[in-house]
Design brief:
Blueprint (H helix, E strand, L loop, with lengths): L6 E3 L5 E3 L12 E3 L1 H9 L4 E7 L6 H9 L3 E4 L1 H7 L7 E5 L7 H10 L5 E5 L5 H14 L3 E5 L8 H6 L9 E4 L2 H10 L3 E5 L16 E5 L8 H6 L2 E3 L12 H17 L2
Length: 267
């Protein structure tokens, strides 16, 4: 079912997707306790992940989380106690500071407006401040959406919002169960997928970014997964002349996005 809050009415009566991610009225990062977490799931709140004490076994929350596609992690009680000293009953949920949007809606709206798609995919970027900085640069560069995986992505909390300098109030974030399937969907939609990696010889200056493009940036530790590297249409690196072999992912993101802007400004 479509989220009506993500659409505006146009003069011709049609609905138009709004190009921003709706901020939450309640910015508290945590919900704890079996019943509060269950009610949050039932109410449709956007939840980043749920931590469940290993000894609890099967509880109703697990089924609701599975139906909603919310990641669940079984952890020892000591970890839950470190997060909060309050009576968590073995369950803690991290609530997102934003509402996620559907990638299909973004892509359809971009094409309908006659614009050239410009999408950013983050493969397992887990550092919250890196994510916020990336979002800030992406919004400034005119990126139309950031895509993150359901599992293995930075938590979008107050720190991420602050580091993005408000960019996450305007830039859609799409959470997908499978980035591999997302890449295929984008390719089927006429969008080339470019993976940025220092492991290849072709540079970003050899890639045509004036056509519909999605750029993949990899994790801070081991870059882009092999599966996504194989599925990408093009692989490209950022040339470096120094002795250090790689850039921070946020910095690398800025370099490649602004090369795309440079090319598009010449068209």
């Amino acid at each position: 079912m479509e989220n009506k809050d993500n659409f505006n009415s146009r003069p011709d009566g049609k609905k138009q997707f709004r190009h921003f991610t709706t901020p939450k009225a309640d910015n508290k990062d945590l919900v704890f306790g079996i019943q509060p977490v269950l009610e949050s799931l039932r109410a449709g709140k956007e939840i980043e992940k749920i931590l469940v004490q290993r000894e609890l076994g099967s509880i109703e929350i697990l089924e609701f989380a599975r139906m909603r596609g919310v990641p669940v992690q079984k952890v020892p009680s000591e970890k839950l106690d470190r997060i909060t000293r309050k009576n968590h009953q073995g369950v803690i949920a991290f609530v997102s500071a934003i509402n996620y949007v559907k990638l299909e809606n973004v892509v359809a709206d971009v094409y309908e407006q006659g614009k050239t798609p410009f999408i950013l995919i983050l493969d397992r970027v887990t550092d919250v401040r890196n994510f916020g900085a990336i979002a800030r640069t992406a919004e400034c560069a005119g990126v139309q959406a950031i895509v993150v995986p359901t599992r293995g992505a930075a938590q979008i909390n107050a720190d991420a919002m602050k580091t993005s300098s408000g960019a996450l109030n305007f830039l859609p974030v799409c959470r997908e169960n499978s980035l591999s399937e997302t890449v295929k969907y984008l390719q089927d939609s006429g969008i080339q997928v470019v993976a940025c990696s220092e492991k290849v010889e072709k540079t970003i200056y050899d890639v045509d970014f004036t056509i519909p493009t999605a750029i993949i940036m990899g994790s801070e530790e081991d870059g882009i997964s092999d599966d996504l590297m194989r599925r990408a249409d093009q692989l490209a690196n950022i040339p470096m002349a120094g002795r250090v072999g790689s850039l921070n992912v946020s910095v690398a993101n800025g370099v490649i996005l602004y090369e795309a802007i440079r090319q598009r400004s010449l068209v």
